[in-house]
Amino acid sequence: MNGQAHDLEIPDSTTLATVLRDMLGLTGTKVACNQAACGACTVLLDGRPVFSCHLLVAQVGDRAVRTVEALADGAALHPLQAAFIEHDALQCGFCTPGMLMAIMGAGSGMADRDDVVRAISGNLCRCGAYPHIIDAVLSCRGRAAP
Questions:
Q1: Helix, strand, or coil here: 66?
Q2: Residue-wise over 8-27: b if at least 16 C-beta within 10 A, else e?
Q3: What phi, psi does 60 have (nearest 5°)?
Q4: SS3 48
Q5: Whole-structure pTM over 0.85, yes or no?
């Protein structure tokens, strides 16, 4: 989990989101729909975006999980986080962790708006900040790969 091994005894039927939030205190991962439909709970599993509310911990095993808490380096924000602030790409902020992780999972190959739209297609923003989110991601090109 974010580069640290955790040895937990948990029922196999427990979701990854529950483990992250309730057992490890990583509350950056949000749970909204609890049906893998909104993307708020997106984390990276072996570098690929997954909905943690619908993934059983038994399916994770010893694979690498990365949450939004791992983006910043201490007080220094990741360039993508800084771009979200610069471009006002968040309003209520509830979807932001999932958006960030979906974008991180898409990698640095996002050349245009269509690529960004595809990367966040599984994530809902109820505030409608999509244009700002897309601008923020595109502004990161050349600064640092997600």
A1: strand
A2: eeeeeeebbbbbbbeebebe
A3: -85, -45
A4: strand
A5: yes
